[in-house]
Amino acid sequence: MKEFKERQGVFMLQLIGVSVVLFALHSYLLYHFATDTVLFFPVWHIYAFHIFITLIVFTVINYRFSSGKTDIFNLFMIMTFLKMALAIVFILPLILSDFENKQPDVFNFFIPYFVYLFLEVFALTRFLQKQ
Description:
Layout: H1 2-33, H2 43-66, H3 73-96, H4 103-129
Helix pairs in contact: 1-2, 1-4, 2-3, 2-4
């Protein structure tokens, strides 16, 4: 259980650090280059969703690995599929709305989505390689 807490703590620090930098950069770019663009989702909603989902996926896989189940590939694939389904549910109001310019919101959502997916895969492969 000590390894679980250590890995979880390190990942949470990485997640917070990456999130602060990404959110600041994203907000800066929107403030300076898209001031006239009206967005459907506030940027902080998008980041709250990504942080929450990424933390849940990593925690479940970390817990499963710490409890002795070293074959976590199937669990990772199921959790990633669930993450994709939740992403679609999250942006479904935008897709179904009569909002005119949907493209900036889609980019605002999916660019951080892939960054968080990369962070998740990077963290998981790093602790799996140590074993």
